[in-house]
Design goal:
The chain is 13% helix and 48% strand. The protein has 107 residues and is mostly beta strands. The protein has one domain: Thrombin, subunit H (Beta Barrel). The strands form two sheets. Strands 2-1-5-6 form a four-stranded antiparallel sheet, with no helix packed on it. A three-stranded antiparallel sheet has the order 3-4-7, with helices on one face. It starts with 6 loop residues before the first helix and ends in a 10-residue tail after the last strand.
């Protein structure tokens, strides 16, 4: 049986998924703060978006959650947290793995 989904389509879908995420919002002690996407890693069908809280930000405060947003500010993904920030940097990772299924058959 021939390959139905071509690698080019998979590359385009992964790139499109990654391109929708433009920023992050982190809930710190009940207040939301905007953060940029620190890094993006695409590997195969996996997209990882990283949000970094620096050593000097939010020390002693509780990180209650993080969200990923699109360019219009729409919520795309949400991750609950319950971490008290120390004086070290803190990296939040969102990972998306694209999975496609093709069913064969005709009309």
């Amino acid at each position: 049986m021939s390959e139905v989904i071509k690698p080019l389509l998979l590359d385009k879908l992964v790139s499109d998924l990654s391109g929708h995420v433009t920023s992050a919002r982190v809930n710190i002690n009940g207040e939301e703060a905007a953060y940029p996407i620190f890094n993006t890693v695409i590997s195969g069908l996996s997209v990882r978006k990283y949000v970094y809280i620096t050593e000097t930000q939010a020390i002693g405060k509780t990180l209650l959650g993080a969200s990923l947003l699109d360019a219009d500010g729409n919520l795309l993904a949400d991750q609950p947290l319950n971490v008290i920030k120390n004086d070290k940097g803190f990296l939040i990772v969102f990972e998306f793995v694209l999975r496609l299924e093709v069913s064969s058959g005709g009309v």
